[in-house]
Amino acid sequence: MYELTDEQEAFMRAEGKNVLCACPGSGKTYIVARKVLKYLHQWKKNHQGMAVLSFTNIASKEIMDQIEQLIGVSGKIDYPHFVGTVDSFINNFIVLQYGYLYNENRARPQVTLSNIWNYQFRFWRTECHRKGCSDSIEKFYYGIDGKLYKNHSEVICEPNSGRKVPPCAQYKKIYEKKGIVFQSEVSSFAYRLLNENPCIAQAIASRFPVILIDEAQDTSEEQMAVFDLLFTAGVEKTFLVGDPDQSIYEWRNATPKCFVQKMQEDDWKTLMLTANFRSSQRICNAVRYFSQSLEDKAANTAKGPFAAEEQKPILLLHSMQTGQEKIYEYFKNKCKEMEIEVVSDKVAIVTRSKIHSDSDISGLWKSSEVEMFARSAYEWYFGSRKKAFSLCEQAIYSMTIGDLKSIHSIEDEINRVIPYYKWKLGIINIMTNYPSLDTPISGWINQFKCTLNQLLESSNLVQREGKDIANVVKIKTRDTKMKDFKEKPIRVFFEKKNKESYTRSSVHGVKGETYEAVLLHVQHQKGSNTLTPSFLNNGALDSELMRIAYVGMTRPRRLLVVAMPGTDKKAEYPRFPKSEWEHVFIK
Ligand SMILES: Nc1ncnc2c1ncn2[C@@H]1O[C@H](COP(=O)(O)OP(=O)(O)OP(=O)(O)O)[C@@H](O)[C@H]1O
């Protein structure tokens, strides 16, 4: 066990309601594991436990692994405690247990991703069909404010003459009565349950008197509203651990706002971890310009084994014509000069761009179609919706119509079988129902099989011989090199590419990781949500894009290089002052 810093000690002593704002490399998982261990040793209650929550199964597993390392034996934290994801906590302990109160049969609700029931409803209007509302009831949900939303926008619809509520709201009632809860509304449903039934909130608070949320900067507003009700209902000890500067999952409704707000509330105590055990002091000094939390504050203190590294971070400026290989060559040579071995767990080249090459497991995908679906899902969530559509379309075409190789125009071929506009809607329906990319790959495949089955059944498309779902949607079952690959979230198989000697990854793919040297490559790309030199120098610190840059820059221990176009030697780079950054020009 490490000797703890004063700040870490303060966290170990803390009781009541606490927010721990922890800088990169401060050992969040380590200190969470120590805290949990401390409580486990003291625990005397048989039917009340701790809830130790994070956002992905992988993160939960990391906490468990860390605890095992500390106690030196492998085991499981079992009843009465719960270690798992925020989603599974809300599903299992709130929605599935008490949701029966809101349906007519008093049955356990069904949480679902897609609408497989298609209940009949006579009152749709032409406009409802035109806007696509009649076909997408799973996109409607009540927010915690009680208002009806579709795709994050409030539904503002003039009710039919004589009707008090719009048809979508009436249709939604039918589903509600049958106990069908769509995944998108689980948190707001849980909120409503607790809000309208304070005794349930009290029961859960009493079942879990200690709640600890790791990576709490990624809590959505709805999730935080649910936890707020539990906190006020009597949870005795609460710990929100996170770093608002590292919130990079807005696409799944994560927002650092809730976390930051707690830091400002009087009844919450804010604790800080400002010692960085990962990076050199020079890196800590240089990256503070990209952190909102450190605006007008001192840099974090480097306390790790490379705290005193002499090498300044490098701003590598090149012309628009400079080839990528030249930039990488410079970086690799610099690594060699610093005696950093260029291997994938020590050296990483990261970009903001979202799509990367395939997994490291050979023969992972058992058909070209399943790979296209998985790739399409990755594009759908992280990349280009157009690419996602094209991949999904090709996979469905190959499963139901014919060989892709022999066709000239996919649209013409499809039109022979089914009107293209109907086909297009079908594809969109499949994509909007892709399971989350945080699902472990084997679970993702199983969930996707069910969704695809339902969606193909509801269309008139017939699967070709040998191309049925069971044959096509399949992955490898065993791998000798990576035995636990089935437990890994599916996104992992697209985020990294370790085939070269170094790691190549999107910033999302290296979140939480440590390397000796990192090159953040600011590629020149068109588009509003890309990193550019001007954004890095002048962009808002509270934007997700800046946080993505910050996460990338805070991964290395010894060498940080940021490469971007810039040939004017007199140009100003306000966030890369020469006192902290070495400016290097290459042609
Ligand atoms: N008191 C301590 N003394 C020495 N090392 C420590 C101490 N506390 C934590 N550490 C180590 O510091 C390292 C911190 O890195 P880690 O990746 O866990 O940080 P983190 O907070 O998760 O960072 P990030 O949020 O940037 O991913 C870990 O290896 C951890 O074991």
UniProtKB/TrEMBL annotation:
<keyword id="KW-0347">Helicase</keyword>
<keyword id="KW-0378">Hydrolase</keyword>
<dbReference type="InterPro" id="IPR027417">
    <property type="entry name" value="P-loop_NTPase"/>
</dbReference>
<keyword id="KW-0547">Nucleotide-binding</keyword>
<feature type="binding site">
    <location>
        <begin position="22"/>
        <end position="29"/>
    </location>
    <ligand>
        <name>ATP</name>
    </ligand>
</feature>
<dbReference type="GO" id="GO:0016787">
    <property type="term" value="F:hydrolase activity"/>
</dbReference>
<protein>
    <submittedName>
        <fullName>Superfamily I DNA or RNA helicase</fullName>
    </submittedName>
</protein>
<dbReference type="GO" id="GO:0005524">
    <property type="term" value="F:ATP binding"/>
</dbReference>
<dbReference type="GO" id="GO:0043138">
    <property type="term" value="F:3'-5' DNA helicase activity"/>
</dbReference>
<dbReference type="Pfam" id="PF00580">
    <property type="entry name" value="UvrD-helicase"/>
</dbReference>
<keyword id="KW-0067">ATP-binding</keyword>
<dbReference type="GO" id="GO:0000725">
    <property type="term" value="P:recombinational repair"/>
</dbReference>
<dbReference type="GO" id="GO:0003677">
    <property type="term" value="F:DNA binding"/>
</dbReference>
<dbReference type="InterPro" id="IPR000212">
    <property type="entry name" value="DNA_helicase_UvrD/REP"/>
</dbReference>
<feature type="domain" description="UvrD-like helicase ATP-binding">
    <location>
        <begin position="1"/>
        <end position="280"/>
    </location>
</feature>
<dbReference type="InterPro" id="IPR014016">
    <property type="entry name" value="UvrD-like_ATP-bd"/>
</dbReference>
